[in-house]
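Key result, reporting period 2: structure in, sequence out.
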């Protein structure tokens, strides 16, 4: 049962994060804190989304082609057990990102040339104190580096078609804090973690606005959203465990309002005050079962559900909601543990919109995502 217990955190991080709500790529799980003894792990994976649709009839109904680019991710974690009660961990991950691009040639007329490229890396340092009763508390600091670029192009953007903003690399700081309870005799564990919002003060360079005085350099603050993670597991039979999680993210506080674009509101651009991206809050559910088959091999199966929201979405995040299945195989030998996983997600249909009031410009249908990952851990 120990092999299953220590493998589930790897499963949920390695195979479940692909294209969650907003621009999220990883769920910021703190599962490494619950590994036994001193533990180090490395993870990597590749995500292949297929997001496509057609312009509305007003723009000729042309196919957009696949607007989502493949991407790879990596992660690192180290947990140190100081004594029976006190432990610490360092986690490196890439929780946020976006690679959406509408092709110019033989693609969308409404949105052709529009793209977003966002990259981030987050470093989290944590302490955990456990009590003899099974209860524990954990918390620590989080530092995040991010950068990005957005380009708006196509007939759907009217006067601001050709607008571009580059966000130079910036650091932001926040924290995580939570509580947990464990009962090893029945393989039970529950943890609740709050992740604070993180403010990034970007140096922004804007070009392509139709009012020349609004182009130039400025500073804009972007907040990556606060979230709550509830993770739980329990033994339900010999060598069998039930696990799951609930993650809520306050995406409505994620705003991108560069100074020049915001200023277009004074020149009649409706909706400029709302910024370049507007997202809805999301709640993501995962439930699964793990099974130990031999002394070395375990496996797990999990299902993910994220409710669809308003179909009118930003062209920079052209999907809403998802349903998926993840499979993982866990091999443990001596102090080593290797987890491999594959996930498939069906993304909810969405209507890419611009303008105020929001007006549908392209119909994004039948989108999906395939992801594979591997995590190697060593306990000492």
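The corresponding designed sequence is given below.
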């Amino acid at each position: 049962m120990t092999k299953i217990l220590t493998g589930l955190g790897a499963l949920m991080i390695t195979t479940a994060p692909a294209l969650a709500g907003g621009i999220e790529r990883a769920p910021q799980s703190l599962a490494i804190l619950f590994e036994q003894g001193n533990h180090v792990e490395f993870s990597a994976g590749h995500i292949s989304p297929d997001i496509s649709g057609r312009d509305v009839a007003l723009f000729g109904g042309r196919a957009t082609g696949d607007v989502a680019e493949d991407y790879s991710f990596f992660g690192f974690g180290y947990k140190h057990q100081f004594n029976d009660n006190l432990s610490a961990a360092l986690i490196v991950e890439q929780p946020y990102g976006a690679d959406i691009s509408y092709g110019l040639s033989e693609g969308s007329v409404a949105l052709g040339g529009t793209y977003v490229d966002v990259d981030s890396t987050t470093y989290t340092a944590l302490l955990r104190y456990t009590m003899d009763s099974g209860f524990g508390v954990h918390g620590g600091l989080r530092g995040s580096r991010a950068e990005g670029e957005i380009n708006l192009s196509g007939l759907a953007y009217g006067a601001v078609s050709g607008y571009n903003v580059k966000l130079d690399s910036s650091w932001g700081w926040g924290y995580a804090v939570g509580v947990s309870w464990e009962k090893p005799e029945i393989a039970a564990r529950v943890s609740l973690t709050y992740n604070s919002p993180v403010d990034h003060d970007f140096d922004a360079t804007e070009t392509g606005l139709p009012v020349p005085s609004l182009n130039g350099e400025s500073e804009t603050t972007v907040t990556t959203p606060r979230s709550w993670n509830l993770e739980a597991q329990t033994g339900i039979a010999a060598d069998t465990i039930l696990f799951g999680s609930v993650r809520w993210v306050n995406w409505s506080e994620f705003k991108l309002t560069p100074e020049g674009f915001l200023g277009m509101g004074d020149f009649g651009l409706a909706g400029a005050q709302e910024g370049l991206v507007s997202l809805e809050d999301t709640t993501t559910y995962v439930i699964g079962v793990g099974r130990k088959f031999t002394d070395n091999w375990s496996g797990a199966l999990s299902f993910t559900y994220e409710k669809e929201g308003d179909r009118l979405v930003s062209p920079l995040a052209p999907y809403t909601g998802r349903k998926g299945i993840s499979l993982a195989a866990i091999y443990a030998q001596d102090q080593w543990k290797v987890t491999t996983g594959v996930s498939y997600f069906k993304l909810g249909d969405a209507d890419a919109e611009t303008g105020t009031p929001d007006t549908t410009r392209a119909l994004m249908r039948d989108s999906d995502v395939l992801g594979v990952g591997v995590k190697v851990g060593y306990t000492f």
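The longest helix spans residues 2-14. The helical segments are 2-14, 259-263. This case is discussed further under Risks and Mitigation.
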